[in-house]
Design a protein that fits this description.
Shape: globular
Largest sheet: 6 strands, parallel
Strand content: 5-15%
Strand order of the largest sheet: 3-2-1-4-5-6
CATH topology of the largest domain: Rossmann fold
Radius of gyration: 19 Å
Structural class: alpha/beta
Oligomer: single chain
Bound molecules: nicotinamide-adenine-dinucleotide
CATH superfamily of the largest domain: NAD(P)-binding Rossmann-like Domain
Number of helices: 9
């Protein structure tokens, strides 16, 4: 099934990021908030995030404009009727999420996949509020949703340090990429994306550029870090 239209329920911190990355990846997006004020706030957040990406040279003005027109904000649940996938990103509360899933089950077409961005709650419990449990899944995006190094949000050293100290991982994700090999990582990402068509697995342009430039990681002496 080809995915063309993505629905996002909630335009808070995560919902606005999910709407942005989906639109920047070429999908049409319908994003819903509970009232016009919160919707405007969420849409403003998307605009300012994309403006920053343009300022940093990560996104062209033309691509920003194209992404922006793909996003439609609404306060109506019924607007999810034409979506192929709907990602729920409302407050982390099971009762609220169950209500959203029951509404989506009623409104969305029978083949629409319903996903939750929950951090901790049971997908099975949310699926039980629908008549299509086999089409309900977890789709957890990291915050911030647009990718961190490429977006210039932090240095690679700070990201590695944050993950080592904050999550107690033996090495940070950028060091790990160099260790695994950027070419291997790109191959895996391309294979996963080809199989699953899930935008989370789409290789970031930065990764592809680095592989093209021969910066494959520790094995060649240079990746994100210099090992010479
Ligand atoms: N904040 C994070 O770092 C993070 C990371 C990964 C996942 N998550 C998960 O993402 C979800 C959203 O978190 P957040 O940080 O974006 O919260 P948030 O409070 O910033 O946003 C939630 C938004 O959902 C809206 N909302 C509530 N009910 C709604 C409904 N029925 N329809 C439409 N909109 C509705 C609220 O008005 C609010 O704007 C949670 O499940 C959370 O656990 C959060």
């Amino acid at each position: 099934m080809e995915i063309k239209i993505v629905g996002v329920v909630g335009c808070g911190l995560m919902g606005s990021g999910i709407a942005e990355v989906c639109a920047r990846s070429g999908f049409s997006v319908v994003v819903r908030e509970i009232n016009p004020e919160l919707l405007q706030k969420g849409l403003d957040r998307i605009q300012s995030s994309m403006a920053k990406a343009v300022e940093r040279g990560k996104l062209s003005a033309a691509d920003r404009d194209a992404a922006w027109v793909r996003i439609r904000g609404t306060t109506e649940m019924k607007e999810f009727a034409g979506c192929d996938v709907v990602v729920e990103a409302v407050v982390e509360n099971m009762e609220e999420k169950k209500k959203v899933f029951a509404d989506l089950d009623r409104i969305a077409g029978p083949y629409t996949v319903l996903a939750s961005n929950t951090s901790s709650l049971s997908i099975t419990a949310m699926a039980s509020a629908t008549h299509r449990p086999e089409r309900v899944l977890g789709m957890h995006f990291f915050n911030p949703v647009p990718r961190a190094v490429e977006a210039g949000l932090a240095t690679k050293e700070d990201i590695d340090m944050g993950v080592k100290l904050g999550l107690n991982h033996p090495m940070g994700p950028i060091t790990l990429l160099d260790f695994v090999g950027l070419d291997t990582t790109l191959f895996i990402a391309d294979a996963m994306y080809a199989e699953l068509k899930d935008s989370r697995y789409a290789a970031p342009p930065l990764l592809r550029q680095m592989v093209t430039a021969g910066r494959l990681g520790r094995k060649v002496g240079k990746g994100f870090y210099d090992y010479s």
